[in-house]
Amino acid sequence: MIRLHPYRQFGREEWPTNGGSPIAKDLRVNEQIRVPQVRVIRGDDQLGVMDTREAQGLADTANLDLVEISPTAHPPVVKIMDYGKFKYEQAKKERESRRGSKQVELREVRMKVKIDTHDRDFKTRTIRKLLLEGDKVKVSVMLRARENSHPEVAEELLKKMYVNLEDLADLERPPRLEGRFFSMTLDPAKKAAARKVAEEKEQRQAAKAAKAAAAQETPAAEAEADAEPKPSEATAPTEGTGVTADSTETPVAAE
Question: Do 24 and 15 meet the contact criterion of CB atoms below 8 Å apart?
Answer without folding.
Answer: yes
